[in-house]
Specification:
The structure is a single chain. The protein is an all-alpha fold. The chain has one domain (21-191). It contains eleven helices and no strands. It has helices spanning 4-9, 12-18, 21-41, 48-88, 93-97, 102-112, 116-119, 124-128, 131-139, 148-184, 191-194. Helix 3 packs antiparallel against helix 4 and helix 4 (48-88) runs antiparallel to helix 10. The chain is elongated. It starts with a helix and ends in a 15-residue tail after the last helix.
Length: 209
C-alpha cells in the first residue's frame, strides 16, 4: 500500500511546483508575508504597539515583493527569456516556435508527464495546446519530448528575474511605498509632525523595528 505522504510528495502537481522557479518563489514570498508578521505578533518581548508596527511593516514589504514579482518580474524576465532564446539557440528555434508563450509550454509539460492512458482521450489537451502538439500527446505511446532547453531557458529567466526583482528592485520600491502606507493607516505620524518631535515628546513606538 502506498503511503499517502509518499504519494503526495511524488505526485505530478508537486513535482511541477518544485521545478518551477516562479511558482516556488511566489509560494515562499506568500508564506513570508503570513509567517513573519505572525512571528512578530507572538513575540512577547516587545511592546504591543511596536509589535503591530513591525508586523505591519514586514507584511507591507513582503506584499510589495509579491506584487512586484507577479506583475513585473515574471512577465518581463520569464517571457523575455522565452522570446530571446530562439535567437541564441538557433538550432532549437523550431522547438520554441511550437509554443506561443511559457504558459502554453507549461501546459504541454504538465500533460506530457502523464501516462499514455491518461493522455489518449484527455479532451483538456485539445483546449490548451495547438492541434499538432495535442495530436502528438494523444497518439505517442512513448514518453513525449520534454524540451529541456525550453524548460531551462524559462527557469533561467525566472531565476535572474528573482535576483534582480527581489534583491534590487523590491527594497527600493518598497521604501517609497511602506512609510506612506503606514501613515495612511495611522501607524506612523505624518512627516511634518515627525520632524517636530523633541525629547519632551518621546515616541511610544520603535519605528526602527
Amino acid at each position: 500500500m502506498i503511503n499517502p505522504i509518499t504519494s503526495f510528495i511524488t505526485s505530478n502537481p508537486l513535482s511541477t511546483i518544485a521545478q518551477s522557479t516562479s511558482t516556488s518563489v511566489t509560494i515562499e514570498t506568500t508564506m513570508k508575508a503570513i509567517g513573519r508578521p505572525g512571528f512578530i505578533l507572538i513575540d512577547n518581548n516587545i511592546s504591543p504597539d511596536t509589535k503591530k508596527y513591525a508586523a505591519a511593516k514586514e507584511f507591507l514589504y513582503q506584499a510589495t515583493c509579491l506584487i512586484l514579482y507577479a506583475t513585473i518580474v515574471v512577465p518581463l524576465f520569464k517571457n523575455g527569456a522565452f522570446k530571446l532564446a530562439p535567437k541564441i539557440f538557433k538550432h532549437r528555434a523550431e522547438e520554441f516556435a511550437q509554443f506561443a508563450n511559457p504558459k502554453q509550454f507549461a501546459e504541454y509539460r504538465k500533460y506530457a508527464k502523464l501516462p499514455y492512458e491518461d493522455r489518449v482521450h484527455n479532451t483538456k489537451i485539445d483546449k490548451v495546446l495547438p492541434e499538432k502538439l495535442a495530436k502528438y500527446l494523444h497518439t505517442t505511446k512513448e514518453t513525449p519530448e520534454q524540451y529541456d532547453t525550453i524548460k531551462g531557458t524559462i527557469e533561467a529567466g525566472s531565476l535572474i528575474g528573482s535576483v534582480i526583482g527581489l534583491a534590487i528592485l523590491a527594497p527600493q520600491i518598497s521604501h517609497a511605498i511602506i512609510h506612506p502606507a503606514l501613515r495612511l493607516i495611522g501607524m506612523e505620524e505624518p512627516q511634518k509632525h515627525k520632524n517636530n518631535n523633541t525629547n519632551n515628546h518621546p515616541k511610544t513606538i520603535n519605528t526602527n523595528a
